[in-house]
Amino acid sequence: MSSAPTSDWISITEHPLSPDELSNWVVLPNCGAVVTFSGIVRDHSSSRENVIALEYETNAAMAEQRLRDVVDEARKRWPALERVAVHHRIGRVELSVSTVVVAVSAPHRDVAFEAARFCIDALKASVPMWKRELWEGGSAWSDETSPIVNARDQ
Prior knowledge:
This protein is α+β, with helices and mostly antiparallel strands.
């Protein structure tokens, strides 16, 4: 068992995200596994080509609480988790830039993979985040914007 306390780093921010920074932050001497997921702005969606950027809106306090709920649930499901970092951008995010990063560390890879996958899937399903797709000459709310559901249902 680790003598280092487990800890979380949750953030909703307008500032650029650094997958490398989060990956490095979760590293601990007793952990043999770090899994990092970075969601990137791409040039298309399920309903549109030629996307040039995304804009995210949220109530930051509510979104941070939902992220906390997701991480708390991950810790219940995988008690061996050590550090967990979940950051999400708001505001305008350009092509090929990270909009969300999840990084987790654990002593073994199965826990790290499963917990990281749970965190991103539960975040997408339960954190109130609205996404607007932008293209030359227009914009629209994304068809991929999800309704709010309970993370514990994941």
